[in-house]
Design goal:
Blueprint lengths: L4 E4 L9 H6 L7 E6 L11 H10 L4 E6 L3 H10 L4 E5 L6 H10 L3 E6 L17 E5 L15 H14 L4 E5 L6 H8 L3 E4 L1 H4 L4 H13 L1
Helix pairs in contact: 3-4, 6-8
The chain binds D-xylitol-5-phosphate (DX5) and zinc ion.
D-xylitol-5-phosphate binds next to strand 2, strand 8 and helix 7.
Length: 218
């Protein structure tokens, strides 16, 4: 049985009281923070000053997901701000190997994210530079979208490549993860699950996290 982690996304939380919203997911493994710039994706969320403050008040590690252009320039700042892991989009990086090295040098785990239609095969040679691979299971930009089953074969191929490499690389899925879809994602080989609306959309987010983790591990 694989160890499974649940990282709730605060994109679906109440942005006027993030400290309280963090306390509602105390059962989680990390908090997923979606940074959007209204350029790489058609939505705008929060940036470095908020991430810095979240790092200061959060008991959970920060799992920062950068959906921003010019990520080679801005990414390392999030690692310096204390993020435990920083995911950058391969589609937004001109120099992904350098960026991954910069993130690690700044003390974060380096993670590369791929949109649903971006193949993983061109990036397999750089697995040794990475601590995590993030496969989007919706088009990035918004919470509450439906899980794209079309990504399942890529999850399987990524799992096979990671296992074949022998490296301790996590495989994260993000988007549309619910009590129903988490089973398919876990079966395909994911071991870190981002869940926004299916956690914060419930009465008891902490309990929703436990339920999702149990389902993924089953
Ligand atoms: C989407 C974000 C996700 C989002 C997931 O672009 O990267 O992290 O918050 O939300 P749900 O779980 O509602 O699909
Ligand atoms: Zn995300």
């Amino acid at each position: 049985m694989r160890t499974c982690q649940i990282n709730p996304s605060i994109l679906s939380a109440d942005f006027t009281n993030l400290e309280r919203e963090l306390s509602r997911i105390h059962t989680a493994d990390a908090v997923h923070v979606d940074v959007m710039d209204n350029h790489f994706v058609p939505n705008l969320t929060l940036g470095l000053p908020v991430v810095k403050r979240l790092g200061e008040v959060s008991a959970l590690p920060l799992d920062v997901h950068l959906m921003i252009s010019d990520v080679d320039r801005w990414g390392p700042g999030y690692a310096e701000a204390g993020a435990a892991s920083v995911s950058f989009h391969a589609e937004a990086s001109a120099a992904p190997i350098k960026l991954a090295r910069d993130l690690r040098a700044a003390g974060a785990r380096a993670s590369m994210a791929l949109r649903p239609a971006t193949p993983i095969e061109p990036y397999l040679d750089m697995l040794p530079e990475l601590d995590m691979v993030l496969l989007m299971t919706v088009e990035p930009g918004f919470g509450g979208q439906a899980f794209l089953d079309v990504v399942l074969p890529k999850i399987r191929r990524a799992r096979a490549a990671i296992d074949g490499s022998g490296l301790p690389i996590a495989l994260q899925v993000d988007g549309g993860v619910t009590r129903e879809t988490i089973l398919r994602a876990a079966e395909a080989g994911a071991d870190v699950f981002v869940a926004g609306s299916s956690v914060y959309g419930t009465e008891d987010p902490a309990e929703a996290v436990v339920t999702l983790r149990n389902l993924a591990a089953a």
